[in-house]
Design brief:
GO terms for molecular function: acyltransferase activity. By secondary structure, the protein is α/β, with parallel strands linked by helices. It has 14 helices and eleven strands. The radius of gyration is 22 Å and the shape is globular.
């Protein structure tokens, strides 16, 4: 939720206010999309960082359904690009819910990370945070930049993903560890059939994916390196594995891992010498009760406040002022999430000083 909301909104009502969480389940209902998960079987740890390859605009939106079933949707946050703020309805909602917006200019992004991450820590909020270390979705332009980066640094070019950037990952790891971090999840997303790269592709109707596959690997936070060089190498190693995983995935339309000669369900892949087995699928519940409860809640709220709007002129004035302010600040200014009361500044600075041991 937005900064002041944690002080005035009961915890039990927060899921109902998370508007995107409700409507992002609708593609499964109306388009017949099937979200499938593989690998890690347990529910996500309360304080976790997720790192994922970025194929298209909608990777994180589809993954919302996975978090709703296996995580804590009330404290789920995403590091996304700053332009999302200007998306009607969705952008305003994400600002009110205190997600992290980056511009890919570190001087600006560092301030945003500090503001949001240490605010979470100051509240002792058990955040589950999603980061795309690649910095953008997979396009011809981003692929060319990734290849240039690989050539400059003596690395192998990737065909199925982009080389990760470690700076944001390192900052987040330091900040979350200063509070408490339970786990890091390595998420690989793949699309076995159609792929809608942009909103126009999705609206066209011909590129709607029938299935979205997520391969989930779990790492305990205490098992990861504590120094920056070690963490950078750990991240790069995950992406080398991810490249090989996606190569097999797009060849066989499923996630595969190396097996043993006596394993079950093994198959020959590539040159016939390496044997692999399918990654076990994790069944997810198909209950849509949360979506329908959320829709019912918003229907009630709409009717109730429309009734107040009709009866009371003062209420109409308040709604008008708030609406204009939200639109101007959210769409033309720095965003609603930049409006910080003094109490929030104090929380952020106290958490930051604790992390860096500044008196």
């Amino acid at each position: 939720m937005w900064f002041p909301m944690h002080w005035i909104i009961p915890v039990w009502i927060i899921p109902c206010l998370e508007l995107p969480n409700i409507f992002l389940r609708l593609p499964e209902l109306f388009f017949g999309m099937r979200i499938r998960t593989f690998g890690h079987r347990e529910k996500f740890r309360p304080r976790s960082l997720f790192v994922m390859n970025h194929v298209c605009h909608f990777d994180w939106l589809y993954f919302w359904g996975v978090v709703e079933r296996n995580g804590n949707i009330t404290t789920w946050k995403v590091v996304t690009k700053n332009s999302i703020k200007k998306v009607p309805i969705l952008g305003i909602c994400l600002q009110y819910m205190c997600h992290i917006f980056v511009s890919r200019h570190w001087e600006v992004d560092e301030r945003e990370f500090k503001k949001k991450l240490f605010y979470y820590n100051g509240l002792e909020l058990p955040v589950q945070l999603l980061l795309f270390p690649e910095g953008g979705d997979f396009t011809g332009k981003s692929k060319a930049k990734s290849d240039t980066y690989a050539d400059t640094n003596g690395l192998k070019r990737y065909k199925y993903c982009l080389h990760p950037h470690a700076r944001g990952f390192l900052y987040i790891m330091e900040a979350l560890r200063s509070g408490r971090l339970d786990a890091v999840y390595d998420i690989t997303v793949g699309y076995p059939d159609a792929l809608a790269k942009t909103e126009a592709d999705l609206a066209n109707g011909k590129y709607i994916p029938r299935e979205i596959h997520y391969n989930i690997r779990h790492y305990r936070a205490e098992d990861l390196p504590t120094d920056e060089e070690g963490l950078s190498q750990w991240l790069e190693e995950r992406w080398r594995e991810k490249e090989e995983t996606l190569k097999l995935f797009y060849a066989h339309k499923q996630f595969l891992v190396k097996g043993t000669a006596t394993g079950s369900g093994l198959r020959n892949v590539g040159n016939g010498h390496s044997e692999y087995r399918p990654v076990p699928e994790v069944a997810m519940p198909k209950s849509y009760s949360f979506t329908f409860k959320g829709l019912a809640f918003y229907l009630f709220i709409t009717i109730f406040f429309s009734y107040l709007f009709y009866l009371n002129w003062l209420w109409r004035c308040c709604v008008l002022v708030l609406t204009v302010y939200t639109l101007v600040k959210g769409l033309k200014g720095t965003g609603i999430d930049s409006v910080l009361p003094d109490k929030v500044h104090d929380v952020i600075e106290a958490a930051y000083r604790k992390c860096h041991r500044v008196k």
